[in-house]
Amino acid sequence: MRAPLVLPHPRSPRMSIRNVWKSRVIIAAITATTALPLTHCIADEGIDTRSKLTVHATADTKVAPDSVTLRFAIESREEEVTDAARRTSEQVNRVVQFLKSRGIEAKDIRTESIVLSPIYPKGQKGQYAKQTYAVQQSQGLDDLFGDSTPQQVAPNQAPTSNIRDQLQKNQPIGYSASRQLTIMVRDIKQFETVYTGILERGVNSIAGIQWMNSDQIQHRRAARIKAIAAAREKASDMAGALDAKVARVLSVQETSRGSDPFSTSMQLFGSESSGGSIEAGLMTLSASVQVVFELSDTEFEN
């Protein structure tokens, strides 16, 4: 146990005037510390006693698109792998030449992927898992629960005749070669012409479409401001119903989630693959926010 603090009497011959002032300062500090209000002690413990109101709001802005991004693929299937790859390459070159003739620049044409894979007869697997041990098949309960140990084959041992026969039977009947490209058509008026043209030149798969607007950033900013205004209005309505007032904003967070712009477009192109009219319509740019307000005058009568 710590010994109590004993201060000499001010009139003691051992104390100078300077020591007397030091003693008075120490006593004042101890008094101020013990007189702290309870709310300060709660704040020191990290407990927030403020009344808060959290609201979520979303606002949309509709604009007309002025450009479009299209993702498509060309796939060829041939008996020989080199023939499949060559045919796909020829069709891609035809499509690219057509796109450039329509004024689409090279910077707006991008190859997304190149895939080359074997084609096997229906019901046969294309690959066998690499096995380090070949375990004989269990014949009964004795093999499962008895003391017998399954026989194992060394990793470097040559395949048995049965496995070799299966590998010989499991041969591909052809090969598939495909390339996926993404293009941007900056002049939306010629999009339908471009779309029909690439289908005529070998494109046989459409992955999706994304309509865009050159002032998209400004429109999204406007939607964000509308969402903030909606959050403030909602907070005022809710606080008024509670006989409270909105004092100030504590935090603001945008909660919009990005999504794949191509994920909802495959059904559209499935119905438009014949080259019919494609309507762009209006784009919907949305913004969502979460705002935390501090409330005042929140005393309620029982």
UniProtKB/TrEMBL annotation:
Taxonomic superkingdom: Bacteria
Any GO BP: DNA damage response
InterPro entries according to UniProt: 26kDa_periplasmic_antigen, SIMPL/DUF541
Native source species: Rhodopirellula baltica (strain DSM 10527 / NCIMB 13988 / SH1)
PANTHER family xrefs: PERIPLASMIC IMMUNOGENIC PROTEIN, SLR1258 PROTEIN
Name of the featured protein: DUF541 domain-containing protein
Pfam families in alphabetical order: SIMPL
